[in-house]
């Protein structure tokens, strides 16, 4: 009997741990939405997301410049990161000899592990002065932020795409080679097209990381809450808007920053639903080997 | 294109392009880490690691920040590891693939992609204000636990699923109960993977700054308890760099962070791999 009771207790306890992530995500939604909705209600949803002036002192809470800023930085970062990451993923999965792959894998893990503030710091100290010299202005710009983000999202895109390419059945490749195609023709016409769902998932997850990044962007983007007229202008991201002003915000301003987080949350949810639509699940790697 | 460039030449060109992309990726890492270490390591010595900051960090060391980092990371792991591993055991061993499991997976995926600054706002509204816990390392550790949870859950789930079914069948056939089987057979076999998951979660917790920006209080003094305010290393680096307090100390702090991450990568890649070879014959 004693054993049976123990079994039941253990099962209940495990059930509770299993529920924890759902409970936490609900708590996050409840607390962020309850603080943010008053601002959206009193300022108006469309005024909030399509308003082009953000000036809390004058009671203006339009976040369109920040939405443009976030999307602009992200789009530029993807433009740089996607080609390089896909080439690198194909290189690791198809071309690189074993030893090179064994070197590159930890390189990419380390790139993924470096704290975002360290990337931001590197950008601030090294990249901003370079941009200032070559492109004029202050050096703090949408382009600078997107270059730092490029490096930050590359590990995500590389590791998931590489995994997708690697999981293509060998027969596909062998059949193409047997027909006399070169390795490059096989990659271009057979392997890569078959890996597309995984590659799209990789890009979307990289995009999610780019939109959610905060401190690294604050350190290099200039953070002016205005529409940029070129990629060399300073911009402010949605995340930066929250982090910069939360320290001193009160009342409706405080609520408007939580409302900014709601918009951010909704964008991420849309990306997640799209990623789920492609149904690609990354295999988790442990140590040096695949499971 | 195909008519102008023969397939053989295209093959040669593309091979060069692929090699270049791999080399560029490695170079990016070498340049960033090299730069931080070259500039930062001369600052890092025992005195820097063991003394208090002077004038908001303009000079002096980073001892309170190291202690703060250890506290938030330990709190995060102690909370997230049981929740993550427990959930993984439940999903893999106690239930079938059903709507409930899908819901848990969706919850953990969503949790994994919530931007860190949103975690920060949540921590402020929930722990600091609603629960009245104030700015403290404990509140910060809890926020980081929530961030680390999906990593630990996902990796643990995969490593438990990879334990051969015959292991469990052997134990059950010998009269072991379900929990005895999980505890004595499945978990020990899955431990290398679970350890990796916990270490990855830990790395995520110790390198995060945005999520704890409004939660830990950013105090400079040595924390006397886990309920004191503090300032973990990434947050210290952010403050030093953005407020232009001290460039050398910022380099030193960045170097310490980079070394921590390098150690973690080496540990997960060598120690865990060796152990997993021993345990699972792989």
User: Percent helix among the residues of chain B?
Assistant: over 70%
CA radius of gyration of chain A is 23 Å
Q: Total domains of chain B, how many? A: 1
CATH class of the domain at 67-250 in chain A: Mainly Alpha
Characterize the largest beta sheet of chain B: strand count, sense, and whether it forms a barrel.
2 strands, antiparallel
Radius of gyration of chain B: 23 Å
The name of the CATH superfamily of the domain at 67-250 in chain A reads MetI-like
CATH homology superfamily name of chain B: MetI-like
What is the architecture of the domain at 67-250 in chain A at the second tier of CATH? Orthogonal Bundle
Number of helices, counting only DSSP H or I runs of 4 residues or more of chain B: 10
Biggest interface, chains and residues, is:
A-B, 94 and 99 residues
- Which second-level CATH architecture of chain B applies? Orthogonal Bundle
Helicity range of chain A: over 70%
Subunit arrangement of the protein? heterodimer
> H/E order of the elements of chain A?
HHEEHHHHHHHHHHEE
Alpha-beta classification of chain A: mainly alpha
If strands are numbered along the chain, what order do they take across the biggest sheet of chain A?
Answer: 1-2
Number of distinct beta strands of chain A? 4
Low-confidence runs of at least 5 consecutive residues of chain A: 285-291
């Amino acid at each position: 009997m004693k054993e049976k009771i123990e079994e039941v207790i253990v099962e209940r306890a495990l059930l509770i741990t299993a529920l924890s992530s759902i409970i936490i995500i609900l708590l996050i939604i409840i607390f962020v939405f309850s603080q943010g909705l008053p601002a959206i209600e009193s300022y108006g949803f469309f005024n909030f997301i399509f308003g082009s002036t953000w000036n809390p002192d004058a009671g203006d809470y339009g976040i369109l410049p920040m939405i443009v800023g976030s999307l602009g930085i992200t789009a530029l970062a993807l433009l740089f990161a996607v080609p390089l990451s896909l080439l690198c993923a194909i290189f690791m999965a198809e071309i690189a000899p074993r030893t090179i792959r064994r070197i590159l894998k930890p390189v990419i893990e380390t790139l993924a592990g470096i704290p975002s503030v360290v990337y931001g710091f590197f950008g601030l100290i090294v990249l901003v002065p370079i941009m200032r010299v070559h492109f004029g202005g202050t050096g703090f710009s949408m382009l600078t932020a997107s270059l730092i983000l490029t490096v930050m999202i590359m590990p995500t895109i590389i590791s998931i795409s590489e995994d997708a390419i690697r999981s293509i059945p060998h027969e596909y490749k062998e059949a193409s080679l047997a027909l006399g195609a070169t390795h490059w023709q096989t990659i271009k016409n057979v392997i890569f097209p078959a890996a597309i769902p995984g590659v799209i998932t990789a890009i979307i997850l990289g995009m999610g990381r780019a939109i959610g990044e905060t401190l690294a962007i604050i350190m290099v983007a200039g953070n002016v809450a205005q529409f940029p007229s070129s990629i060399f202008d300073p911009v402010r991201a949605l995340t930066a808007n929250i982090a910069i002003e939360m320290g001193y915000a009160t009342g409706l301003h405080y609520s408007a920053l939580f409302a900014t987080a709601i918009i951010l949350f909704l964008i991420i949810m849309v990306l997640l639903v799209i990623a789920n639509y492609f149904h690609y699940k990354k295999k988790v790697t442990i140590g040096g080997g695949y499971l | 294109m195909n008519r102008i460039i023969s397939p053989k030449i295209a093959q040669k060109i593309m091979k060069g392009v692929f090699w270049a992309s791999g080399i560029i990726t490695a170079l990016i890492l070498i340049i960033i880490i090299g730069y931080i270490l070259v500039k930062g390591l001369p600052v890092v010595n025992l005195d820097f690691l063991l003394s208090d900051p002077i004038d908001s960090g303009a000079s002096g060391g980073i001892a309170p920040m190291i202690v703060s980092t250890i506290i938030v990371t330990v709190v995060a792991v102690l909370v997230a590891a049981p929740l993550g591993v427990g959930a993984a055991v439940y999903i893999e061993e106690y239930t079938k693939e059903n709507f409930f499991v899908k819901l848990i997976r969706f919850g953990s995926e969503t949790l994994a992609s919530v931007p860190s600054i949103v975690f920060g706002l949540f921590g402020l509204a929930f722990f600091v204000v609603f629960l009245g816990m104030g700015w403290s390392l404990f509140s910060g550790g809890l926020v980081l636990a929530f961030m680390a949870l999906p990593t630990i859950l996902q990796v643990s789930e995969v490593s438990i699923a990879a334990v051969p079914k015959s292991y469990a069948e052997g134990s059950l056939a010998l009269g072991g109960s379900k929990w005895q089987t999980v505890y004595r057979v499945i978990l020990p076999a899955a431990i290398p993977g679970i350890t990796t998951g916990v270490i990855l979660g830990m790395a995520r917790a110790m390198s995060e700054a945005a999520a704890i920006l409004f939660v830990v209080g950013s105090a400079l003094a040595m924390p006397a308890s886990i309920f004191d305010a503090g300032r973990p290393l990434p947050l210290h680096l952010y403050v030093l760099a953005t407020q232009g307090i001290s460039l050398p100390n910022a380099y030193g702090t960045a170097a310490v962070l980079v070394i921590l991450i390098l150690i973690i990568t080496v540990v997960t890649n060598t120690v865990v791999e060796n152990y997993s070879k021993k345990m699972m014959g792989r």
